[in-house]
Amino acid sequence: xDKRILLIVGGGVAAYKALELTRLLRKAGVAVRxxxxxxxxxxxxxxxxxxxxxxxxxxxxxSLTDEAEMGHIELSRSADLVVxxxxxxxxxxxxxxxxxxxxxxxxxxxxxxxxLMAPAMNVRxxxxxxxxxxxxxxxxxxxxxxxxxxxxxxxxEYGPGRLAEPPAxxxxxxxxxxxxxxxxxxxxxxxxxxxxEPIDPVRMITNRSSGKQGYAIAAALAQLGAExxxxxxxxxxxxxxxxxxxxxxxxREMLAASxxxxxxxxxxxxxxxxxxxxxxxAAGKVKKGEAGPPVIQLxxxxxILATLSNGAGxxxxxxxxxxxxxxLEDHAKAKLARKGCDWIVANDVSVNGTMGGDDNAxxxxxxxxxxxxxxxxKGEVARRLAARIAQEF
Length: 393
Hints:
Layout: E1 3-9, H1 17-27, E2 30-36, H2 46-53, H3 64-69, H4 72-76, E3 81-87, H5 89-97, H6 103-110, E4 115-119, H7 123-127, H8 129-140, E5 144-145, E6 149-152, E7 158-162, H9 166-176, E8 187-192, E9 197-198, E10 204-205, H10 212-223, E11 227-232, E12 243-247, H11 251-260, E13 266-269, E14 276-278, E15 298-300, H12 304-310, E16 317-324, H13 328-339, E17 343-348, E18 359-360, E19 362-366, E20 369-372, E21 376-377, H14 378-390
Parallel strand pairs: 1-2, 1-3, 3-4, 4-5, 8-11, 8-13, 11-12, 13-16, 16-17
Antiparallel strand pairs: 6-7, 9-10, 14-15, 17-19, 18-21, 19-20
Helix pairs in contact: 1-2, 1-9, 5-8, 10-14
């Protein structure tokens, strides 16, 4: 791949991950030109970064040598993509405010290339209103973000703020490098979130699904270059960048929207679809009465996964999800055979914090066996699954 990135390494313990990211990029044939901030140099050395990048490390805005070899304006425009990893709260604030007091901030202000930031900071710094304002400003300016992940931090606290893992940042970079993504030219359908089956205009049958896992998978597939349609039940989540979201409520609406998204190469059915719906929905609110609670007659909803797996225009790869509370793998194997899909991603929703939470532990069940993944942030599950899907194409 004849591509070059400009890698800005900010300060923080997570700066060491920039070395692994550089190695992954060079292995893929992507040229890396590093800028190391003064704070970043407290955690990684210019020599190690230069050795892995196979290029000079730039550090000083006012270095006569650097300016003679490549002025900072030319440096800011010498790559196809500018990547900031780790993107500290300070670097984000400078970029959002248009400050230009050092080489990194000047480069970000002067560049005319796309920018990808991978934030890393203490959870309280990430959650601070100032950082969230800067995040919104940068997104409005067109900056793309990967992470942060949630987890334990070097400072001893836990929460969002961990730098995304190098493979995840690498995949985001590859997805942004035009046609460089491994799923470029492929179409993907993802279903996500709950469905809502109305009893009357006020009440409904639904479930605890937040949509987080499905939205993360849609984003990860898009980052690998796929053209993604996300058919989503009711959630409070924003549409991932570069993803076409179609909002629905009921299972029947989700099936119709999914079929309208065909043809597709990939279908990932993550949505927690209600198996049953009221046979009739009252036109007005059902009132309490002396006769006691009303009797609600249920009828079966359409099976979206089975329909996509066995219908006309079947995607090459159909992946289903199985949310179980017991005998996880037994139920997943049975579902794989019953539905006719290619893979089942099984997760134990009896574990506190899985359904509606930010972490997941899954088992990938295929005709060839079972692959078990440890518990991790849902974003990381999504990136690993997207990478595994890409291997099929």
